[in-house]
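Example record used in the benchmark description.
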Amino acid sequence: MTPQDMAAIHRACFPRRAWSAEEIEVLAKHAGAQFLASEDHRGFLIARAVLDEAELLTIAVAPAARRAGIARALLMRLSLQLQRSGVTELFLEVGANNRPAMALYTGLGFAVTGTRPGYYKSAEGAAEDALLMRAALPLGQAGQSMTTPPKSG
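Model output (structure tokens):
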């Protein structure tokens, strides 16, 4: 997937704060940059790892491809890739009103750890809080221990 492809999907997902192909290319040059794309090239994520923690910088799935498990699959692949390199925690921020993303993240074991009041601005100038979230790796199901496998019944 090219930076131009990623920028087009990002623009469709985040029209007010989309990243350009040039910005994505700059991110790719940073130490610890992690880029993953779905096999069908309808979704991608960018993360950055430093020592034993990583931050999900963005995840985007083309609007027509949503609710097909692409974002979840990308996050699970990222989790495994990060674990192999010694990362133990993953952080992210999400708009407080983004219910689909919140459901995905909490379902994978992320918990809210803080708030950035008024961090995102809408086209109309309204402010939306950003929620800071954290999960221990490997990612799993909400309510499960992140260090032991679930019990089978």
